[in-house]
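With this grant's support, we have paired protein sequences with backbone structure tokens. One protein thus recorded is set out beneath this paragraph:

_____
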Amino acid sequence: MITAEYQTFLILSETLSYTKTAAKLFISQPAVTQQIQRLENQLEIKLVNYQRPYLKLTPAGEELAVFLTRIRSQTTQLMEILQDDHQKHEIQFGITRSLGEVFGSQLIEFLQLKNDLQKISCLAENTQHILQQIELGKMDFGIIEGNFNKAKFSYHILSQEEFIPICSPTHPLAKKKIVSWNELASYPLLIREPGSGSRTLLTALAQKENISLNDFKQLITISEPTLIRQLVCAGSGISFLYRLLIKKELAAGTIKQLPLERGTIAHDLYFIYAKENYFAQQYFKWFTELKQQLQ
């Protein structure tokens, strides 16, 4: 179990106040200070920096706070399961907005078949937000397409999808046999918000060609992939999306893939959850079944 010192530090990391932490724990403020100092001495690590009236966690303190938050969440889940005949009745997962359009309904239908699940919660968000929620123990697993620190998470490749440049069939670049990145930058770019996997991937692709997002004639940030597709069809700009998101539009000819040099990349889509998670075996089983179902 987590000792008193760790519990005190966890609450301090949330309140960032010795006074509020003392009030929550019904102890004196000096007692809080002593427990934090004792924990720092035990670990031989500086966890907080305090310059009145501001308290800030050190990088090591932030890492420890995330770890303790995740442990607290998993402990709560485990106690509920042990008290209820070992059955996990609630699941919370995240899926990126891009992938939610393609896999969201299939994933929920898949989980509905699990008779032990009474509550299923799905959050469609960007990659960064999902990673943060998993780290904090507020989300069981996620389906993402962005880059992430693989040392921090357990992950499995769900599929590999092509990430392609697109435009309207009436766009000036649509009839060209080959398009350069410099030509592409002459037009407005429709792009997802910071924190999204698509934006991170596109930024990395452009940087390889010595192109910055700021080099584009106009940068239009949109959080919804559906709206990006609509604006591309209307000729408002060019964009990059996963091919599986625009299969119908490509087949119908309402969206055209740009013949961009080195502008296409196959990227992995991940099933991801916290490392050393108590429920890892169950999550891996779900991943295996889901991957077979999607193939």
The chain has a mean pLDDT of 88.
